[in-house]
């Protein structure tokens, strides 16, 4: 249902005026910016970035000349100032900013100490972009991948578990820290029996591994992805193809791990060789295994809890970064049927 919006705020055509939050002490903050050339990108088209900040923080934000005036709750205005100043600094360095960056900064500020927002976000650089943690859980996950050789990322779809892991894999490959990337998923929909499908092996497995390809092409130039796939530097294969191998000097990712059996998970974990990192991602609320078959992800996290060099990071609905509607959908399902604990 779409509610009727009020008239546009003065000086911001097409942007509806927000009412400042009525809770907490009120504050007015004036945020100055030195270079007017950067303001159009900072404010967004028709002040869309300001509108997003208003919506997320329940404050009013208006641009006047080279300043932005914030009115509303003290905490909301303080967060808005921090967000605007960080966005401005990025733009001044030549970085692009968008609604996702704004959402990420606000989420960090709401869930952590606002004073620590600027240096509290983890990040990883690839050839095409810098991927930054948009929520505290994402930053914790990124730091865990940097520190540990085996990391589990557990939680609902849309939280960036797989995307961040692929970004780290690309970074480690480009930095020479690993010699190859190996990406895998259990092809449960095909029962791991792919022989009856038409085409060569890549044609057979592509439909099940497409999300991994999409992430690769987003963080690396397409021509590099294709070249590395042809040369075997990047390998994408179903879980069944991992049996009997030792994966050394590689960044290894197992996606959709909730659909592994106990035996498959043990087999995959024991493939980890010298000089390798392994990230295992999955959503326990979306298990496609036959009734009565226990998920290997649940068992592995429980068995390996506290083991040195291994860490499990849990994501929740508030970590969904695709869009607010997806987060609300996840929350509704979680409230109706609590997810299985792992």
Structure overview:
- It is a single chain.
- This protein is an alpha/beta fold.
- Helices cover 39% and strands 17% of the residues.
- The chain has helices at residues 39-43, 48-57, 74-92, 99-111, 117-120, 136-147, 161-174, 201-219, 222-231, 262-269, 296-303, 324-336; strands spanning 26-32, 60-64, 67-73, 123-125, 130-132, 150-154, 180-185, 234-238, 250-254, 277-282, 310-314.
- It has a six-stranded parallel β-sheet. Strands 1-3-2 form a three-stranded antiparallel β-sheet.
- α2 (48-57) runs parallel beside α4.
- The longest helix is centred in the N-terminal third of the chain and has 19 residues, at 74-92.
- The chain is globular.
- It starts with 25 loop residues before the first strand and ends in a 6-residue tail after the last helix.
The topology string of helices and strands comes to: EHHEEHHHEEHEHEHHEEHEHEH
User: Residue share in helices?
Assistant: 25-40%
Which word captures the global form? globular
Distance between the termini: 36 Å
Describe the main β-sheet briefly: 6 strands, parallel
Strand content: 15-25%
Gyration radius from CA atoms, angstroms = 23 Å
Number of H- or I-type helical stretches: 12
Counting DSSP E segments of at least 2 residues, the number of strands comes to 11
Unreliable stretches:
1-14, 113-119, 189-194
Structural class: alpha/beta
Mean pLDDT: 81
Oligomer: single chain
Strand order of the largest sheet: 8-7-9-10-6-11
């Amino acid at each position: 249902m779409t509610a009727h919006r009020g008239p546009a705020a003065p000086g911001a055509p097409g942007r509806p005026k927000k009412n400042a939050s009525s809770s907490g002490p009120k504050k007015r903050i004036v945020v100055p910016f030195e270079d007017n050339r950067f303001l159009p990108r900072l404010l967004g088209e028709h002040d869309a970035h300001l509108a997003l900040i208003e919506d997320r923080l329940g404050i009013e934000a208006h641009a006047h000349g080279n300043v932005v005036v914030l009115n509303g709750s003290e905490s909301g205005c303080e967060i808005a100032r921090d967000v605007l100043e960080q966005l401005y600094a990025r733009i001044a360095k030549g970085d692009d900013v968008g609604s996702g960056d704004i959402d990420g900064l606000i989420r960090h500020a709401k869930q952590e100490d606002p004073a620590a927002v600027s240096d509290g976000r983890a990040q990883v650089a690839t050839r095409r972009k810098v991927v930054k943690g948009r929520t505290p859980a994402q930053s914790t996950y990124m730091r865990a991948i940097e520190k540990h050789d085996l990391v589990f990322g557990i939680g609902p779809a849309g939280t960036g578990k797989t995307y961040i892991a692929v970004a780290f894999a690309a970074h480690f490959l480009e930095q020479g820290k690993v010699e190859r990337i190996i990406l895998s998923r259990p092809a449960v929909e095909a029962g791991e029996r792919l022989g009856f499908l038409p085409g060569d092996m890549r044609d057979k497995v592509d439909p099940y591994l497409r999300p991994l390809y999409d992430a690769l092409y987003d963080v690396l130039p397409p021509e590099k992805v294709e070249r590395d796939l042809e040369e075997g530097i990047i390998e994408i294969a179903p879980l069944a193809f991992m049996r009997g191998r030792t994966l050394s000097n590689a960044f290894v990712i197992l996606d959709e791990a909730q659909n592994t059996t106990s035996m498959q998970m043990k087999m995959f974990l024991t493939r980890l060789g010298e000089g390798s990192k392994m990230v295992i991602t999955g959503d326990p609320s979306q298990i496609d295994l036959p009734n009565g078959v226990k998920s290997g992800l649940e068992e592995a996290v429980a068995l390996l809890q506290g083991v040195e060099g291994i860490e499990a990071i849990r994501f929740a609905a508030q970590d969904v970064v695709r869009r607010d509607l997806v987060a609300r959908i996840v929350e509704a399902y979680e409230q109706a049927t609590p997810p299985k604990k792992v």
